């Protein structure tokens, strides 16, 4: 779906605003000023109404009672076009492998609706009967344990808001030429939810971890038997056995009835439908972590177990999938995140990187979570290049596309976190470019 963005046309208030950087960026403090200024600005978008318009045009929903509510709601039918973009990657070798990106360009705020969470399935979505699902903890432990779902639901629960990002997110940008696709297709293998579940440390403690154990191998109950090795240090730190996603039990696509959640680490290691956790002295070097998810570098080396996700940002509005409906005022809006902590600063450029202005970060800025940034902008029409760059609280920023590509082998596609540039065309269309 390509959606047209309507600008706010000129007004006295807008014309008085001072630019802070090239290409029409306006001081972010404008958003912070709130109240009067915003009201003046909105006044200029709506057309003036008369009492006659209002009474003549009574729509049907104002004349008769509406439909009966249902026990579980769905979005308005008018929002049906807002969908994940589903891609089949390996048609020949793995026909049930699917990825689907969150349609970032159509969403606001930082929490991903459950029905639009991105997905990666190596062999489809298993239909698990929770009554028959078991979690086994074994290997280098004092006493192997088996849990039912009901057992686990009685444990003390904690919740954590964090992003989940596939290490293959943005892989289109590792191709020699920039692919033209929607923002969500390119960058949507990232989502953010409030997860709740049991600290894995609690269950490991109950099993009694042998001092020789330094890793665990977690396996899923899908037909792929998807398995990944995780260092014990992470498993006994902030790893969750997640049972809930944004308040409700985890969706089948996200791992119902339970999955691992590794805040800040690549989602690929967060085993869904987890049913076995084996404590080991060494990594398992499973198929799923050797055939994929290792980083090939330009010097010929391969980096395994590069779990932490880098600092990243992307402007979601405007972005490909949206079209600017003419010159005027827009609010540039985007997402920034870092696997290492909080986002400290996001800067935006509207002149291809010659000048930059600081965006507003929407509170609360949570660690290892999507952070919304915004900056007001006046588009005069004509081609313009928009970029964003984020820095986290530890000073980690984003490389240029060129710098990222220089370090990596030409056929690698994981952990891409370079600065994204969007080219706004004369006609308001937005294209993916490398800068
Ligand atoms: N059992 C199992 N776990 C899995 C996968 C899978 O195919 N099977 N895919 C992994 C990959 S590659 C990613 S990116 C995340 C995706 O999580 P999501 O589908 O909830 O977004 O799950 C991971 N855990
Ligand atoms: Mo992934």
In short:
With 435 residues, this protein is of the alpha+beta class. It is built from ten helices and 28 strands.
Walkthrough of the structure:
The chain is of the alpha+beta class and 435 residues long. Among the domains are: 115-293, Oxidoreductase, molybdopterin-binding domain (Sulfite Oxidase, Chain A, domain 2), CATH 3.90.420; 312-434, Immunoglobulin-like, CATH 2.60.40. The protein is built from ten helices and 28 strands. The protein has helices at residues 12-15, 29-33, 35-43, 51-56, 149-153, 183-187, 200-207, 232-235, 287-290, 401-407; strands spanning 3-5, 19-21, 25-26, 85-88, 98-101, 119-121, 134-139, 145-148, 158-165, 190-199, 215-220, 227-231, 240-245, 248-249, 259-261, 274-280, 295-296, 302-303, 312-317, 322-324, 328-337, 343-349, 357-358, 360-361, 371-379, 384-392, 421-424, 430-433. The strands form eight sheets. It has a five-stranded mixed β-sheet. Strands 9, 10, 13, 14 and 15 form a five-stranded antiparallel β-sheet that branches. Strands 23-22-26-27-28 form a five-stranded antiparallel β-sheet, with no helix packed on it. The longest helix has 9 residues, at 35-43. The protein is globular and about 75 Å long. The mean pLDDT is 93. Bound molecules: the ligand Nc1nc2c(c(=O)[nH]1)N[C@H]1C(S)=C(S)[C@@H](COP(=O)(O)O)O[C@H]1N2 and molybdenum atom. The site of ligand MTE has 20 residues, from strand 6. Molybdenum atom binds at residues 120, 166-168, 267-268.
């Amino acid at each position: 779906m390509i959606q047209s963005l309507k600008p706010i046309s000129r007004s006295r208030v807008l014309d008085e605003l001072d630019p802070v950087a090239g290409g029409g960026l306006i001081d972010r403090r404008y958003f912070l000023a709130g109240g009067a200024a915003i009201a003046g600005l909105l006044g200029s978008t709506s057309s003036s109404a008369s009492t006659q318009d209002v009474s003549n045009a009574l729509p049907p929903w104002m004349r008769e009672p509406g439909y009966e509510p249902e026990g579980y709601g769905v979005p308005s039918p008018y929002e049906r076009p807002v969908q994940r973009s589903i891609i089949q990657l390996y048609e020949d070798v793995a026909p049930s492998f699917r990825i689907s990106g969150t349609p970032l360009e159509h969403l606001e705020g930082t929490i991903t609706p459950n029905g639009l969470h991105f997905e990666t399935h190596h062999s489809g979505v298993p239909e698990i009967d929770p009554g028959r699902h078991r979690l086994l903890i074994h290997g280098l432990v004092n006493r192997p344990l088996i849990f039912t779902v009901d057992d686990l639901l009685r444990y003390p629960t904690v919740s954590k808001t964090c992003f989940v990002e596939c290490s293959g997110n943005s892989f289109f940008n590792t191709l020699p030429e920039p692919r033209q696709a929607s923002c969500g297709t390119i960058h949507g293998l990232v989502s953010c939810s409030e997860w709740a579940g049991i600290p894995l440390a609690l269950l490991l403690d109950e099993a009694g971890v042998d001092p020789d154990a330094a890793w665990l191998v977690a396996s899923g109950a899908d037909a792929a038997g998807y398995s990944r090795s995780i260092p014990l240090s992470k498993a006994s730190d902030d790893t969750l056995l997640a049972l809930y996603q944004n308040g409700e039990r985890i969706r089948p696509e996200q791992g119902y009835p339970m999955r691992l959640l590794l805040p800040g680490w690549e989602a690929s290691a967060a085993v869904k439908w987890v049913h076995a956790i084996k404590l080991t002295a060494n990594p398992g070097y499973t198929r799923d972590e050797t055939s994929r998810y290792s980083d090939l570098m330009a010097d010929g080396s391969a980096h395994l177990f590069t779990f932490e996700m880098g600092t990243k940002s992307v402007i979601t509005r405007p972005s490909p999938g949206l079209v600017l409906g003419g010159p005027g005022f827009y609010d540039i809006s985007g997402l920034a995140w870092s696997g290492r902590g909080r986002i400290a600063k996001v800067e935006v450029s509207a002149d291809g990187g010659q000048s930059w202005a600081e965006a507003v970060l929407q509170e609360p800025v949570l660690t290892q979570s999507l952070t919304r940034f915004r900056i007001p902008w006046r588009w005069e029409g004509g081609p313009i290049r928009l970029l964003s760059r984020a820095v986290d609280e530890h000073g980690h920023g984003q490389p240029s596309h060129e710098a990222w590509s220089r370090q990596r082998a030409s056929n690698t596609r994981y952990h891409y976190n370079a600065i994204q540039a969007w080219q706004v065309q004369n006609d308001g269309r937005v294209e993916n470019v490398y800068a």
